[in-house]
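Hey L., structure's done. Input below.
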Amino acid sequence: MKWRPIISVLICLVVLGGISSSLLSTSQIGSSSAWRKRPLHPAADILKVVAAVNREFSDSWKNADLETATPASVLAVMRRASLALHGTVPSLEEIREFGPAAQMVETTVSENDLLDRYVQYLLADRRYADYVSERFARVFVGVDTGPFLVYRRRRFQLWLSDQLFINRRYDSLCRDLISSTGVWVSDPAVNFVTATITDDSQGRPDLPKLAGRTSRAFLGMRLDCLQCHDDALGTIDLSFDGMPREALQTDFHQFAAFYSQASISLGGVQDDFRHYSYTYLGDEEDSLISPKVPFQSDLTLPAGSRRGQLATWITARQNRAFSRTAVNRVWAIIFGKPLVYPVDDIPLMGPFPPGLELLATDFSDHDYDLKRLIQIITRLDVFRISSRATFDVTSQHEHAWAVFPLVRLRPEQVAGGIGQTARVRTINADVSYSVRQQQQQDILSFVKRYGDTGEDEFEDRGGTITQRLLMMNGNFVKDRTRSSEDLNTAARIATIAEDDEDAIEMTYLCVLTRLPSETELHHFLLALKDVSPDQREPILEDLFWTLINSTEFSWNH
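Output:
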């Protein structure tokens, strides 16, 4: 083929020396020593918290007489961390830099050391802020685009990404969301308020919707269930410090009254002096409603706007609900399921699962540092434990986190994973702008067809026939698995792998972030035995396509 010499040259330039017989041994794909100069271990106080949380889980397993799975492989944990923090699978380049091959370069480095360094790398990359900000944006402003004249979801998400990238204090960020004033373009935090404006709201925020979103996002409570009637079924517990109390309709509307003075004009979001009135169930006339918090009313509210008062109360260090809710949502983002389910329904006074109180305390004591919290959670035994076990796994094991939970990937993770597998190099800020833009557009298009999970993205949803057909027949997968002039991974592997075993191993690492089993390797070696170069490429393309369409690829495990 006349193009093969040109293709070979280009490939050699891209991979910086090429791929040798095994990525886990001598490959130099994009390898850099920059991260090998970074500290290996988290701070000593982080390890202390990790040990304490591990003990709580260990004690709970012992008390329940539960067997636990063994530690997962480095590659398996790398895949989990990458999916959690970047929304994609590790690249071949990253596997070379942080995977088992690194231990051959640094013989004294343990597996935990490698994973600690990898998490630090993930958190330092802009992809972390971009991906996790989208996860938080869903609970803060939903997924709808809203009225363009007063709302900019994309602008809000970009601002949120900036805040996460600089690791801004989470409590400070949340206070801005609740109390900020200004125009939704120049002051993006106010989009939290303007996101609730509808055609029927006469240019003012929807107070019930805004109050409900606030209670769920920042307090882990479903106060919006009280907007029409008292809690006759006892599903909402506002008991505090041993004082039982029924949740009432008044609790919700007094909470909503904190937003009653928020107004929207040409000058943006401001606070005026309007009052809030509502006709309670059973009443014939409106009642004038003053703002009041649903619990811990003894906390002194500062002078100033009503929204400012609410923001200060919610983020007060004494308000444990705030830190618990943040921990539970970060846990859900990392594992794919929350520590307390549902993610926005945490009992005010417990009981709490192992780890929650320790993590919430550390979070508030260390200035609401999200990156520190993520480092702690990803260092825990429950995150680095295997999803496989030598014993029969029951719902009790899963509930107790005695095995790593099997969770279906979110649509954007599936799309991100497919996009990354198509390239040897990492798709980050170092690649060309056109590549990143095309990747983003392709992911958005794929997610739209695959089916967005919406705001309640931690609800358990089964796969659909449409999703399977899109994976098997859609152009997004097809274009990234067949050899082409675009020099995708399938084409590169087919061209430069030294032998069939090397090609099969690289394909498995690229798609599933693991090496093939002996059975898998033997099967595909037989398929490639004694075939011509022209026959070899289509077989490898088929292997690539098959692995992407496997159940294993679409699940976190």
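The two ends are 42 Å apart (CA to CA). The longest strand covers residues 262-265.

-- N.
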